[in-house]
Amino acid sequence: MSVFTDETRERAREIIARYPADRSRSALLPLLHLVQAEEGYVSPAGVTFCAEVLGLNKAQVGAVATFYTMYKRKPTGDFLVSVCTNTMCNVLGGQEVYDTLSEHLGVGHDEATADGTITLEHAECLAACDYGPVMTVNYDFFDGVDASTAVGVVDELRAGGRPMPTRGARLCTLKEMAVQLAGFADEREGAVADGGPGEPTLRGLRLAQEHGVSVPGFDPNTPIRSKAEADKAAAEAKAEAAKPAPVEASAAPVKGGDGASAPTGAAGVGEPAKPAEATGPAKPADASGSTTRDVKAPDDKSPQVRTAETRQPDAGTAVPDAPGTKVPTDGTGTAPEAGDARSAEAAGVAANAPAGDGKPAGDEAGAQERNLTEAKAGTDADGAGPADANETGAQK
Fold it and tell me: Which of 182, 169, 73 is nearest to 119 (CA)?
C-alpha cells in the first residue's frame, strides 16, 4: 500500500477547506486528481486515502473514480496520447492515425509502452471537429494530424522532448496535469507562456466583428455582486419604491364664468389639468434595460424550492415577460392569489411520507386497521359474508 507524502496530505487539507464543512464530499473530484498526481493513476491506496479524509466508504469513492475516464485505474504513461476515431475525424483519417501509432508503439487501446512513456487510447470525440483529424497529448491538442505527423510527435516524446501543441500551453506530464486539475497552479517556468486560439475558433468572432453582431446591452466589465451587495441593493430598491411619489404644487384655482373652480396653467381654463408626472430616481430595472425582477442570492433557498419557483413562480410576484415563466390564471384572465412555494413543498412532503427501512411507502399499520374496521362494519350492517366484506374493504 502506498503511503502518500506530507505534501499530498497538506494539499488534501487545503482542497477540503475550500468547501463548507457539511459539503466536504464535494472535494472528492479534485482529491482523486491529487492522488493521481502522486501515483500516476488512482490506485486502491488512493481510493482508501480519499475515503478516509472525507469520511466516505471505499465503494462511494470507487463509484466516482470508475465513472470518469480521466481517472486512470492502472499505471499510465507520462504522456496520454488520445486519437479521435469518431465520425468526423474517422472520415478524415483518424482511424488510420490510430492504427499507425498502435503498430509503431506496439500497444493497443489503453496500453502503455514498455518504457512507461506513452499510453495510447482511441477517443470517441475530442470536441474539435473543425480541426480534424485531431489527437491530444495529456488533453492538449494537435490539430490536422496525419499518420506521419502523429508518429513524429510520439517519437519526440519518447526522446525526452516536449513538442508544442497546436493550441494551448506547453506540454506537461500526466502527473503535472493532475496537480493542475486538483486546483493548484502550474509552477513550471513559462508553463503558460505560449499557445493561442486556432483559426477556425476565431472565424466566428471575426464574422461578428465584420457584420457588427454583438449581444445588446452586454458589458463585459459588469461586476458580479456578492450576496451582501445584492441584499443591500434589494433593500434600497424596496425602500425607494415605498416612498410616495412627489407631486408638483398646483396654482390657486380661478373662478370660472359659472362660479366653478377651474385650473389654471398650460391646460387652459375649462380644460382638465394633466396629472403631474412622478419624479424620482430610475428603478434598477430601468438602468439595466431588463424587466426581470431582482432576486436574492440562490443560497437563501433550498434547490427544491428554487426549482419549483422557477417552473411555476408565485402568481403575485411573477414577472409576465420573464424568460421561462408563465403567470397562471383562473380562466378569466385574472391571476390567482400569490401562493407560498415553501408551504406547498411542506404540504407535499407531509402528504408523502418516505418509506421506512422495513416497509415500502404507504404500508402503515393505521391504514390496515382502518380497512379491517371498515370491512367489518360493512359486514355487520349489510349482512354480507366474508367474501363480500373483503371485496368491500379492497374497494375502499
Answer: 73
Nearest to 201 by CA among 141, 253, 257: 141
Contact by Cβ (8 Å): 85, 122: yes
Element (H, E) at 121: strand 118-123
Q: Please check whether residue 261 is in contact with residue 271, taking contact to mean a CB–CB distance below 8 angstroms.
A: no
**Structure confidence at residue 188 (pLDDT):** 81
Q: Are 119 and 101 in contact (CB under 8 A)?
A: no
| Pairwise CA distance, residues 179 & 384, whole Å | 77
208: DSSP letter: H
Residues 136-194: pLDDT tens digits?
Answer: 999 999 999 999 999 999 999 999 999 999 888 888 999 999 999 999 988 888 777 77
* Sequence-separated (6 or more) residues with CB below 8 Å from residue 278: 245, 246, 247
- Name residues of the chain where pLDDT drops below 50: 1, 263-270, 276, 278, 281-288, 290, 295, 298, 315-316, 318-325, 338, 356-363, 384, 386-396
pTM: 0.54
Q: What is the pLDDT of residue 84?
A: 95
Burial of 21 (0-12, 13-18, 19+ CB in 10 A): exposed
Integer Cα distance of 201 and 116 in angstroms:
34
